[in-house]
Amino acid sequence: MRVIVTKNYDEMSKVAARMIVSQVILKPNSILGLATGSTPIGTYKEIIKSFELGIVDFKEVISFNLDEYLNIEKENSQSYDYFMKENLFNHININKKNTYIPDGMSLDILNECRLYDKKIFEAGGLDIQLLGIGRNGHIGFNEPDIQFEARTHVVELDQQTIKDNARFFDSVDQVPTKAISMGIKTIMHSKKIILLASGKEKADAVFEAVHGLIRPKLPASVLQLHPDVVFIVDEEAGLRLDLKEIY
Ligand code: F6R
Q1: Strand residue runs (E) in the chain
Q2: Mutate which of 164, 186, 196 to test ligand 1's pocket (most atoms within 8 Å of Cβ)?
Q3: Residues near ligand 1 with C-beta < 6 Å?
Q4: Most C-beta atoms within 10 A of its C-beta, which of 8, 76, 198, 203?
């Protein structure tokens, strides 16, 4: 595991964007795994800047998002589909037909989960997966006590996650309680993984993910087993890390 501690959110975003841009320059038909939430917004802004400067071309890229709420229409501004268009896809030359987000409105949700993994597999597998981290250590919507063997599946959101995500809604009652999420196994199959964290409220989760026991109670701890993972965290999120102990 590599850990990069940056002085602030903007630096974290720049470092992460550079890695993703370089991935696409080296392999123009890269398969990217993408995340939503507040943390990657700065990274997406930096990627857009590189695109506008003509440094990188997304026309052959395929992307798969980590997750989507259940029973929220794509057109709803709270959907992750909407988020991705607003924050990235509308601003780069990716072919929108090649951007996949789990369909939380599917009438056959179990089949949707199965097909999602199949599509990732058929595309050749994820080259790089971008992750945020929940305060409870979740990655994607793999909440504490998840099975590490899980592939894309339906999840019940943790009370902590519902509370944390209420800031994006008018009230906490509007936050969906279920979502489709890539499973830990799907994420761990990615060739490379970048995890981003910013702010002191993430410091405990980051500490446990890096130094803690590998356990389903802290889903991000499984990343210690990945051969090519980098945590890019700002000083506040990295507050409790002991950099001498990381190898
Ligand atoms: C988003 C996702 C979540 C978030 C996490 C952190 O697609 O899967 O795991 O990365 O909840 O969210 P923020 O960045 O809003 O703190």
Answers
A1: 2-6, 31-34, 62-65, 67-69, 99-100, 128-131, 153-156, 178-181, 192-197, 229-234
A2: 164
A3: 35-39, 66-67, 132-134, 138-141
A4: 198
Decide if pLDDT at 99 tops 80: yes
Quote the pLDDT of residue 129: 98
Angle (CA) 140-49-130 rounded to 5° is 15
Question: Is there a contact between 42 and 10 (Cβ–Cβ < 8 Å)?
Answer: yes
User: Each residue of 12-27: pLDDT tens digit?
Assistant: 999 999 999 999 999 9
CA 134 remoteness from chain centre: 10
Q: Which of 9, 32, 78, 133 gets mutated to test ligand 1 (max ligand atoms within 8 A of its CB)?
A: 133
Q: Which ligand 1 atom is nearest residue 161's CA?
A: 11
Q: What is the pTM of this model?
A: 0.97
Q: Is the pLDDT of residue 104 over 90?
A: yes
Distance between Cα 185 and ligand 1 center (Å): 18
Contacts of 26 (CB under 8 A, 6+ apart): none
Neighbours of 172 (CB within 10 A): 12
